[in-house]
Design brief:
- By secondary structure, this protein is α/β, with parallel strands linked by helices.
- It has 2 domains: 208 residues, Alpha-Beta Barrel (TIM Barrel); 106 residues, Lyase, Ornithine Decarboxylase, Chain A, domain 1.
- The chain is 24% helix and 22% strand.
- The chain contains 10 helices and 21 strands.
- Strands 1, 2, 12, 15, 19, 20 and 21 form a 7-stranded mixed beta sheet that branches.
- Helix 6 links the parallel strand 7 and strand 8.
- Helix 1 crosses helix 3 and helix 3 crosses helix 4.
- It is elongated.
- Catalyzes the interconversion of L-alanine and D-alanine. May also act on other amino acids.
- Its cofactor is pyridoxal 5'-phosphate.
- This is Alanine racemase.
- Pathway: Amino-acid biosynthesis; D-alanine biosynthesis; D-alanine from L-alanine: step 1/1.
């Protein structure tokens, strides 16, 4: 993690010296990433996606830091997340991506939140509520241009202009979502842009939004009126085929509980999936899959083999996992680290340096998004910068 002289705080209830894992969160880097994305957005407003507890770092910390940097619009997945964001951003525009659940319109109105409407039923319910309140409340409309997940179909989008219900509320945003923007040459990008352009042309005057983190970096990027970065804000690489332009936001350290030597032909961990071919020194860390560190990072094989598995940095040296990740513990092979440089209660790096969130995800056979959003509640959380 980058060192800063700005304010540092532990906002968790777990003291650092009592925690098995220590999560470092750099709010200055978060704000810097937002400003960098804003500068790439071609004049479009740059919102922030803070769903999934701000990708694991905490809505109550991320939203104020992003607001202080200049962000005025936020996207969440659930209504409960929107209410949390509203508490710390009383003047912000807040959209809820996962649609309008039946019967929740009064809550949206109470907290001045905007649903993202993605079906005829949702449009009808929101319009009916607005008519009953005699107030044209704001909402976004989501058109699906290829994801086949949420949103109106393209044919439905093209006939929106004929829907009487649109007179009952204010359509503050027309949006869609890229399928594969991180693949800059994927033909789906151009197909989605073309479909979205046609719908946008049929609804003149309504602000439009398509690019996510990776979409901001497309060669023929359609900036429109608003961009919606998420993963890149938190240090994830929006351009996987090139160097990461983002600053790291999250670092994770784990505490060594015990060190031991094991003899040749001994195994480590549940089911004996890792075999020592010679005498090896094993360190056991007080972090496991209950803390959100994926079990799929387990090392199953023999000492000395090149395995696609987890890795830790110990005294500046890369050390491979040994055996299965268990609920509360991870075992690593520290044989090549001088004994004088590693001892009980030391901390080792699980995320940081060359172990970026993308690399950790790759080694677990998943993606960095999953690593971030699973960050556990048992870590001591150390915040640097931002609002402290």
């Amino acid at each position: 993690m980058t060192k800063h002289t700005s304010q540092t705080s532990n906002n968790g209830s777990i003291p650092e010296n009592a925690a098995g894992g220590i999560l470092h969160i750099d709010l200055d880097a978060l704000a810097s990433n937002w400003r960098s994305l804003r500068d790439h957005a071609g004049g479009a407003e740059t919102a922030s996606v803070v769903k999934a507890n701000a990708y694991g770092i905490g809505i109550e910390k991320a939203v104020p830091a992003l607001s202080a940097a200049g962000c005025r619009t936020f996207f969440v997945a659930h209504l409960s997340e929107a209410i949390r964001a509203r508490v710390v951003a009383p003047d912000a525009t807040i959209y809820v991506l996962n649609g309008l659940f039946s019967g929740t319109c009064p809550t949206y109105a109470e907290f001045d939140l905007r649903p993202v409407l993605g079906s005829s039923e949702e449009i009808e319910e929101w319009a009916g509520f607005c008519r009953a309140q005699s107030e044209k409340l704001k909402a976004a409309i989501h058109v699906d241009t290829g994801m086949n997940r949420l949103g109106l179909t393209v044919p439905q989008g093209l006939t929106l202009k004929d829907r009487a219900e649109l007179k009952d509320f204010e359509t503050a945003l027309l949006m869609s979502h890229f399928v594969s923007a991180e693949e800059s040459d994927n033909p789906l990008n151009a197909q989605q842009i073309e479909a979205f352009e046609a719908i946008r042309a049929s609804l003149p005057g309504i602000p439009a939004s398509l690019p996510n983190s990776s979409g901001i970096f497309l060669r023929d990027k359609p900036g429109y009126d608003l961009v919606r970065p998420g993963y890149a804000l938190y240090g994830g690489n929006p351009t996987p085929s090139t160097d990461n332009p983002m600053r790291p936001v999250v670092g994770l350290e784990a505490r060594i509980v015990q060190l031991r030597w094991i003899e040749a032909e001994h195994t480590v961990g549940y089911n004996g999936r890792w075999l020592a071919l010679d005498k090896r020194r094993i360190a056991t860390l007080s972090v496991g899959y209950a803390d959100g560190y994926p079990r799929s990072s387990s090392a199953r094989g023999k000492s000395g083999e090149e395995l696609l598995a987890g890795m830790a940095i110990v005294a500046g040296q890369s050390c491979p996992f040994a055996g299965n990740v268990s609920m509360d513990l991870i075992t690593i092979d520290v044989t090549d680290v001088p004994e004088t440089q590693v001892k009980r209660s030391d901390t080792v790096t699980l995320i940081g340096g060359q172990l970026t969130i993308d690399e950790v995800g790759h080694r677990a056979g998943t993606i960095g998004y999953e690593i971030l959003t699973n960050l556990g509640a048992r870590y001591a959380r150390i915040y640097r910068g931002g609002e402290g």
